[in-house]
Structures are given as structure tokens and as C-alpha cells.
């Protein structure tokens, strides 16, 4: 299982604490050190949809003033690659599951 995110992100911290407290093994991938490739973001978008992948409530979304821009999906994917903070965090990925954000109840139901 992989957890993608940013070390100091509150939601990422909660997710990591959830898995560590239950002794569930994962590999953490820090967006700051290893930004996702266009191929990886495209895979996420194909599985979950662009509206799930992009964090529209985040600072990066607001800073880039994306609300009123009419961007293609490809342009949005490229922005996620250039600005990984635009991606909703954490991203939890294993062979069968892909989940964005922290939701303790969902985690309890799906990862235990």
C-alpha cells in the first residue's frame, strides 16, 4: 500500500497515524520529494475522476485561481503534476483501492 502526500499536511498525518496505530504496512511517498508523474495522475483521474483528484478547497487551487478557468482534463492533470499540492491528500493506493482524503470511518471499513 502507498500513501502519497506532504509530510506536514494534517490529513496525511492522520492517515499515517491511523495505519501505524493498527500496524498496517505502507510506503509513504512525499509529493515534495517525488512529485507524481503525468502517467500516475492520469491513472488516478481515470479511476476516480478529475473532480475527486483535485482539492478544490485547498490553498493551491485558490492561489492558481482555477475556479472560473475552463481547463481541459489534460490541462488539469498537467497542473497537478506541476503543483502536487493541488491533489487531494492523502492518496491511498494499493492493488485494488484508490482513495483520496482522510475519513476514519471509511478507513475502518476498507483497510482493516
From TrEMBL:
Pfam families: ArsC
Domain of life of the source: Bacteria
Bilayer-crossing regions: none
Family: Belongs to the ArsC family.
Protein name per UniProt: Arsenate reductase family protein
UniProt organism field: Helicobacter anseris
Taxonomic classification: Bacteria, Pseudomonadati, Campylobacterota, Epsilonproteobacteria, Campylobacterales
Amino acid at each position: 500500500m502507498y500513501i502519497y502526500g506532504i509530510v506536514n499536511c494534517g490529513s496525511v498525518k492522520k492517515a499515517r497515524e491511523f495505519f501505524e496505530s493498527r500496524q498496517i504496512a505502507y510506503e509513504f511517498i512525499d509529493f515534495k520529494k517525488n512529485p507524481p508523474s503525468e502517467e500516475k495522475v492520469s491513472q488516478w483521474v481515470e479511476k476516480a475522476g478529475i473532480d475527486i483528484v483535485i482539492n478544490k478547497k485547498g490553498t493551491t487551487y485558490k492561489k492558481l485561481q482555477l475556479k472560473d478557468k475552463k481547463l481541459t482534463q489534460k490541462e488539469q492533470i498537467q497542473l497537478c503534476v506541476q503543483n502536487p499540492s493541488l491533489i487531494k491528500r492523502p492518496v491511498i493506493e494499493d492493488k485494488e483501492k484508490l482513495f483520496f482524503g482522510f475519513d476514519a470511518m471509511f478507513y475502518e471499513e476498507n483497510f482493516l
